[in-house]
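Human:
Care to share another protein and its fold?

Assistant:
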Amino acid sequence: MLAFDNPRDKLNFKMMCSYCHQVGTLGFRTPEKPVDWETMLRRMDGFGGLYPHTRETIIPRLMNTYKDDAVDKWPTFVPPPAPTGMAAAATIKMWEMDKPLEGSFHDLELGRDGLVYAVNISRGRMIALNPKTGEQTAIKFPRGSHAPHSIETANDGSLWTTMCASGHMARYDIETKQFEVYSSAEAPKKRGNYPHTLRINPKDPEGLIWYTDAGSNSCFSIHPLTGFVKEYKLLSAGQAIGAGRGESRGITPYGLDYSPVDGMIWYSKLNGNRIGRIDPSADDGDITEWNPPFRGPRRLHVAPDGMVWVPGFGSGVFGKFDPNYEKWTVYELPDAENQIPYALNVDKDGIVWICGTGNDTINRFDPKTETLVEFRLPTRVSYTREIEFDDEGNVWTSTSGPARHMERGVGAVIKISLPKTLPAGGGIKLTPKRYEGSHDIGNLATAPESKRPVKPDNTALFAEIDKAEMPAAYVPREHQKYVDARIAGMPPQIRPRVGQLWNEFRQANPDRSRDGAMFIRILEHVATNEAAPKRRFVKKWQHHYFGDAPDNLSQRNLERGKLVFEQSTCSRCHNIGSGEKKLGPDLTEVTKRFRGSKLLQQIVKPSAEIHKEYQTQMILVDDGRLRTGLVIKETDDEVLLLPNLLKPDKVETIEKASIEERKTAEVSTMPTGLLDTYTVEEIFDLLAFIQSAGPARGSAGP
């Protein structure tokens, strides 16, 4: 439904904006005003991967497609036919894992002790699930090692995990319950960049742990006994076989696997659009790389016959690479345009299982019959990234999208079991496409060259601006004074945009060519909204990164702090002093309790301490939906719930008789990451501005 001028732009958006979550989910549609959409997208690495011309138009286009009133215009949903044959014969069991709104399980592993271990990347722990009893045990990773990403069983039965945020490898002994932590980088480096996917060949006498590093152009191995790390430098752009038109200059080593036939190590480069091979017996790895005929090779696996199966995340396909003849066979998934297959795996019988990451399915493909069977998962917005098999042939996966986006607001482990005798039917036969080694880079290479789109029609934008309230600080008789001060506080690169929009508006509306109020609204729109997309990701800030510097904020730039206050959308939920009451606490009152470092902690880590007046309620109703929000009124018969503070008129009424479970969430309604696109100096200016309205240090206050 989101229209693009050409396939290149669409592939770019699809690759960059569905990297870690589905597009169009309820959580994705939460923003209300343009500034809220800009803040949300800016947090996603500051538009780092989108083409520049896409960044300029993406906000109004997203709003026109996904906002509440736009959703009402969507085509009528036509449910797919009920599953039949093999698809209807499966038994699917799901265990909800960890705490509500906190469960996001990137990977899982089946331990030799019969437990299922799922790693919670955002909470720094793994959950050990006993599938027989349903009992769950939380295991915290050691202090200083952060973001458990991928997990595998080593040849000695221990569990190894890539700790992507801290650049470590963690070993967990399932018998002693003890951890060992190593640098993922080759000595003398103390840490790696972003250790990602790991695999271990059970036939390797040394039991080496192999892994990619998504933040470098390297793969690594670590010896499980000595901790010795060896780095393999991968090839640069232009060195791949079949490196033709459309080749990416990026890197991002990603998926990895070993060949059960000859022990070779295979890897993919997600953004570099490559797959590659390392020979462990060669000192330098004797590395070779190939370009696949599709976009976005992600988590690959090698079949028992040595064929390399690769998901094409961006193209909605999966392919088989024959290393003997260096040829590709590619299959499109149904509705390939909207599919984002993140990972696949191949079972002992050579059956390929593919994650339906974008449509909440797991797909079974038989290479002999070329038949695909789709198994629908129990809940929506699952976003699966890994598939594992147990000794009985059952298929296991975990849900890893942001918990707040998921249907029930909680992560899960899922098992799919099939009967020993498989019924016929229930699938579709796929048509293969075959490519020689000299192919272009799939549908990206054959797409027309990207051109800068024509100037967009701003009629809808002007209508939205015209509805905006006048700023509280504006006084008509001091019009020019206000304009001069506002423009002076704007970044120089966006100031011309005010005149550009104003002239365009006057040409389209000559009867309002002297409308000073509309000029002010345009000025405010540019100052608070259009600066946002220019910002780029700076750092994933933690409050302890700043030391005691926030406790000494003399001589700060309060005007710049005020600008950050507006740009980071603090003003959408908070007042400072007088003004209309908003749903967040008045920051004048907050600064009476918190100042300096403690105030910064409240901003950077909003869930650390939540005032009871602003605690979110989680309510599970009898139709299976999990509703979350702020309870604004409660009677004997019903609860009035506000799911989104930015939409105060969107109140839900829930009958108490329909409530199955209700509890207080430990997650703040204030999102994390609001300051991740701001520098240290800007953050200190923001703190100083907030504190300027509160009592001075040492003052008892009013």
